[in-house]
């Protein structure tokens, strides 16, 4: 951590006057958000619609850095909306759109050197805001809020030691991790690089965050982490490459990141085939021959929701009815369970240029999209569209313009974007906040506009969707119409079958859908004794104004069988076994042998079905037992068991949840002998684990004291378990390396984390015995040496025992600085006088650092003097020699 930052303590930055519009929920959008007749979608449009709610001016070039492009981003929390641009952070009151605070980007990340490419998101699972930006000191600044309000933040610096520029940092979150991805440059492109960080440590405000680094990878560019909108401990990432690796691609890379540091982190990647994505062409605009810069084909946005990843990118396409390539955008949906492409389509229109798509998937599962557009008759503007959950694949709603541009983009050098932003409203999961760039006549070359939007539609469904009916009898199914986004109105229902020959009806055939609610009707099918046996497809269509939706039912007339499983969902500890009972029941006189099998068995679990075939007589019931062993990897699996007899086939789907828990601790702890240090141990639920975990500790070799508090912790899927690990050492403990194992056990599931303990210290060495004549002065050296990486200042003292007249000892210097792997000396001086009694004394030289004191004892002998007078022919003098006993 480089700083704690409170935005309320920073000075305000002046902004230009702003207009705010807050229509009532369900009210018509203001005129500035009217449907544009010049921007029709060229894809198969759905009959759903989008509504624009609150809207207001955002930042502009004059009140930010004066640079371009703005790179606008937006996120919403319970009380505030946050916009980030180059080079400004703006916080708005969500209730009315009024400005609360603006902060320069470099001040927000101070004392870092942030200057560009900001990102911000709100994560409902942790109740925290996360943000990032490029740091000029070869790395990335990132921050996490202290609460669900964006007022107090912990700011961190992530060094990128492989590059001089960590460009366009993108952030994404799952339940347990934050991923930051960049493109590394060192005058030239090096490759894609990403870090996986421990999210729990960030939430708790640890001063240092554990992370794992991957890359750079020279063959990949612009790996985009997703924002996970529903619970998952796997963080997904996608890439469609970028201009640094020139090509037209038919591939989208899918990455799955598992594990959290300091534990092991693994990454699995898959290459999926998509329709060709090409470098986008520039955007035509009104009032200028200069084209709007549409950048390249890199992923613009990515979100994971209930097993599927949506991604978007700029693209080039020739819209239906057009004669030339235009700037379009691509939307792709990937099923992460089966690694298959569900939807993959371009969005464009005749004569129009579309660019910089951003989106969120709201709580009900609707796709809400914002993008920029322009044409020969349109200045660069902002529009929204979407796909409701019941809309046909590959379709979007009619476009609604959020903000009409007022002038052409004339930046030089030409730049636009580089991206737009969205964020789901955690207080109203059907509402999504959006921000985009447009060109205004005030505020410089660019301005941003912020709005909230929602999907307006309704859905229709049938239960059951499969019905068996005997010839000459009838059957029914419940039809439910449900409001989306506050829709209300009357709907007419009709029914039909293919092939014909059945009598079908819906009653009542006219219903009123209440806003935010649902209404029911009943579908009925009647057969005669002469109705041929076989499969019939029935449709029920509900129409309200221009909205029309259909639900489908499958009808079988004649002999059939029913299939079910008990339980329908099984929860197992990893590595254990369980079973499902599959029940098959004859209907309408069915008789025959049924073959059973697991269809498309998912990798991981193992299955055994006994028996694999059963015989049914008319009116009878049979069972088969499916035994499953959960793999060692916690995950959710869908298991499909089919039963077939001739042309009659049914399947039942069961769910297997293999649960586990994870434990993470600091990889290493370093402390000085005589001190104590605490660290956090985090326990997390994996795929639904719930239970109490008991922790035990062992350290080898023995010596350091270790403890955890509390020793037992409760872990549930929605909350991490955190315990405090404390290591204490005595001043006498030998410096060295120790291994600490933190074990957690719950319900027979043992896991552990290993912490490397490094106890540092220092030694004091010197002569063991000294002798000095009374009345003399003697000096010698004392050496202080670092052991196992000790670094610090030592305060030095020297004492003598017993004390005697005229005997003094001292050390110079009295303070020394010791660095790892080095030694320093101090000079000890023993001074005596003629009055000092002869005999033995003990000198203690001590070096202290905090509570640690290391000493050396030296024996000092004070001796008498002897005088011998010699008479020789050529010299007369005095020779002094020592004599006498070394005892007193």
Task: Please characterize this protein's 3D structure.
The structure is a single chain. By secondary structure, the chain is mostly beta strands. It contains two helices and 68 strands. Strands 2, 3, 31, 32, 33, 35, 37 and 39 form an eight-stranded antiparallel sheet that branches. A hairpin with a 3-residue loop joins strand 9 and strand 10 (139-145). It is globular. It starts with a strand and ends in a 6-residue tail after the last strand.
Shape: globular
Amino-to-carboxy terminus distance: 63 Å
Question: What value does the average pLDDT take?
Answer: 88
The main β sheet shows up as: 8 strands, antiparallel
Tally of contiguous helical segments: 2
Please tally the β strands and state the result.
Answer: 68
- Stretches where pLDDT falls below 50 for ≥5 residues? 15-44, 866-888
Kindly provide the radius of gyration, computed on alpha-carbon positions and rounded to a whole number of angstroms: 38 Å
**Percent in helix:** under 10%
SSE arrangement:
Blueprint: E1 3-6, E2 20-21, E3 49-60, E4 73-76, E5 80-85, E6 88-93, E7 99-104, H1 105-108, E8 114-123, E9 128-135, E10 139-145, E11 152-159, E12 165-173, E13 177-185, E14 189-198, H2 199-203, E15 211-217, E16 224-225, E17 227-228, E18 235-239, E19 249-258, E20 266-277, E21 283-285, E22 288-292, E23 299-305, E24 308-317, E25 326-335, E26 340-347, E27 352-361, E28 367-375, E29 378-387, E30 400-403, E31 421-424, E32 432-438, E33 447-463, E34 466-469, E35 474-484, E36 489-498, E37 503-507, E38 510-513, E39 518-526, E40 534-544, E41 547-557, E42 560-566, E43 569-573, E44 577-587, E45 592-599, E46 606-610, E47 613-616, E48 621-629, E49 635-645, E50 648-664, E51 668-672, E52 676-686, E53 691-700, E54 705-709, E55 712-715, E56 721-728, E57 736-746, E58 749-766, E59 769-773, E60 777-787, E61 792-801, E62 808-812, E63 815-818, E64 823-831, E65 839-849, E66 852-863, E67 865-871, E68 876-882
Parallel strand pairs: 17-23, 34-41, 43-50, 51-58, 59-66
Antiparallel strand pairs: 1-11, 2-3, 3-33, 4-5, 5-6, 6-7, 8-9, 9-10, 10-11, 12-13, 13-14, 14-15, 16-18, 18-19, 19-20, 21-22, 23-24, 24-25, 25-26, 27-28, 28-29, 29-30, 31-32, 32-33, 33-35, 35-39, 36-38, 36-40, 37-39, 40-41, 42-44, 44-48, 45-47, 45-49, 46-48, 49-50, 50-52, 52-56, 53-55, 53-57, ...
């Amino acid at each position: 951590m480089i700083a704690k930052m409170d935005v309320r303590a920073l000075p305000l930055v002046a902004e230009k006057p702003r207009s705010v519009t807050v229509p009532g929920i369900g009210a018509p959008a203001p005129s500035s958000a009217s449907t544009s007749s010049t921007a029709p979608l060229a894809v198969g449009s759905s009959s759903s619609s989008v509504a624009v709610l609150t809207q207001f001016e955002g930042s502009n070039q004059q009140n930010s850095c004066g640079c371009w492009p703005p790179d606008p981003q937006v996120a919403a929390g319970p009380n505030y909306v946050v916009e980030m641009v180059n080079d400004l952070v703006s916080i708005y009151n969500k209730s009315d759109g009024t400005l609360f605070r603006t902060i320069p980007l470099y001040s927000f990340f101070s004392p870092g050197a942030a200057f560009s490419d900001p990102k911000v998101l709100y994560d409902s699972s942790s109740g925290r805001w996360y943000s990032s930006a490029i740091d000029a000191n070869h790395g990335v600044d990132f921050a996490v809020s202290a609460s669900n309000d964006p007022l107090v933040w912990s700011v961190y610096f992530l060094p990128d030691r492989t590059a001089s520029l960590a460009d366009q940092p993108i952030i994404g979150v799952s339940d347990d991790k934050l991923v930051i991805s960049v493109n590394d440059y060192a005058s030239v492109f090096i490759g894609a690089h990403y870090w996986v960080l421990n999210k729990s440590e960030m939430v708790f405000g640890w001063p240092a965050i554990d992370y794992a680094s991957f890359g750079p990878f020279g063959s990949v560019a612009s790996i985009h982490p997703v924002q996970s909108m529903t619970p998952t401990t796997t963080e997904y990432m996608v890439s469609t490459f970028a201009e640094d690796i020139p090509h037209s691609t038919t591939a989208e890379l899918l990455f799955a990141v598992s594990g959290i540091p300091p534990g092991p982190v693994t990454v699995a990647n898959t290459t999926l085939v998509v329709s060709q994505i090409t470098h986008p062409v520039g955007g035509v605009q009104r009032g200028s021959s200069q084209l709007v810069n549409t950048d390249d084909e890199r992923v613009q946005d990515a979100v994971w929701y209930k097993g599927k990843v949506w991604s978007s990118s700029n693209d080039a396409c020739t819209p239906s009815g057009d004669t030339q390539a235009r700037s379009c955008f691509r939307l792709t949906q990937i099923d992460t369970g089966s690694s298959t492409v569900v939807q993959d389509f371009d969005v464009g229109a005749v004569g129009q240029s579309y660019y910089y798509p951003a989106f969120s998937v709201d709580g009900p599962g609707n796709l809400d999209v914002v993008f920029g557009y322009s044409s020969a008759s349109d200045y660069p503007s902002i529009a929204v569209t979407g796909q409701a959950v019941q809309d046909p694949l590959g379709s979007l709603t009619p476009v609604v313009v959020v903000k009409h541009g007022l002038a052409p983009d004339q930046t030089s050098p030409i730049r636009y974007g580089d991206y737009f932003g969205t964020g789901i409203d955690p207080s109203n999961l059907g509402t999504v906040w959006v921000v985009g760039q447009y060109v205004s006549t005030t505020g410089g070359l660019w301005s941003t506009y912020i709005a909230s939007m929602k999907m307006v539609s309704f859905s229709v469904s049938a239960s059951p969707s499969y019905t068996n009916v005997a010839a000459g009898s009838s059957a029914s199914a419940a039809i439910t119409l449900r409001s989306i986004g506050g829709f209300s109105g009357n709907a007419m229902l009709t029914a039909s079958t293919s092939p014909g020959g059945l009598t079908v009806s819906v009653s009542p055939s006219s219903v009123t859908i209440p806003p935010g609610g649902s209404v029911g009707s009943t579908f009925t099918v009647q057969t005669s004794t002469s109705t041929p046996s076989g499969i019939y497809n029935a449709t029920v269509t509900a129409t309200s104004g221009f909205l029309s939706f259909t639900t489908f039912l499958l009808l079988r007339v004649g002999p059939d069988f029913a299939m079910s499983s008990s339980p329908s969902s099984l929860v197992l500890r990893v590595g254990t076994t369980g079973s499902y009972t599959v029940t098959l029941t004859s209907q309408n006189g069915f008789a025959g042998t049924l073959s059973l099998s697991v269809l498309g068995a998912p990798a991981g679990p193992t299955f055994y079905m006994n028996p694999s075939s059963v015989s049914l007589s008319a009116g009878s019931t049979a069972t088969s037992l499916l035994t499953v062993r959960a793999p060692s990897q916690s995950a959710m699996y869908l298991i499909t068991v089919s039963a077939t007899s001739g042309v009659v086939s049914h399947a039942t789907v069961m769910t297997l949840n293999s649960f586990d828990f994870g434990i993470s601790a600091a990889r290493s702890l370093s402390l000085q002998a005589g001190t104590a240090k605490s660290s956090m141990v985090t326990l997390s639920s994996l795929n639904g684990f719930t239970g109490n975990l008991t922790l035990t500790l062992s350290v080898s070799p023995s010596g350091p004291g270790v403890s955890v508090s509390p020793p037992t912790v409760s872990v549930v899927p929605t909350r991490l378990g955190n315990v405090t690990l404390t290591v204490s050492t005595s001043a006498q403990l030998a410096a060295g390396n120790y291994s600490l194992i933190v074990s957690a056990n719950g319900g027979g599931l043992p896991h552990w984390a290993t912490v490397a303990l490094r106890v540092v210290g220092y030694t004091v060495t010197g002569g063991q015995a000294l002798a000095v004549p009374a009345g003399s002065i003697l000096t010698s050296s004392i050496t202080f040496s670092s052991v196992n990486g000790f670094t610090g200042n030592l305060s030095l003292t020297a004492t003598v025992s017993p004390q005697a007249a005229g005997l003094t000892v001292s050390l110079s210097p009295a303070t020394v600085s010791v660095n790892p792997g080095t030694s320093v000396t101090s000079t000890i001086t023993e001074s005596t006088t003629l009055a000092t009694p002869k005999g033995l004394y003990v000198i203690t030289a001590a070096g202290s650092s905090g509570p640690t004191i290391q000493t050396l004892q030296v024996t000092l002998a004070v001796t008498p003097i002897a005088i011998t007078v010699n008479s020789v022919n050529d010299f007369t003098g005095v020779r002094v020699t020592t004599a006498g006993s070394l005892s007193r």
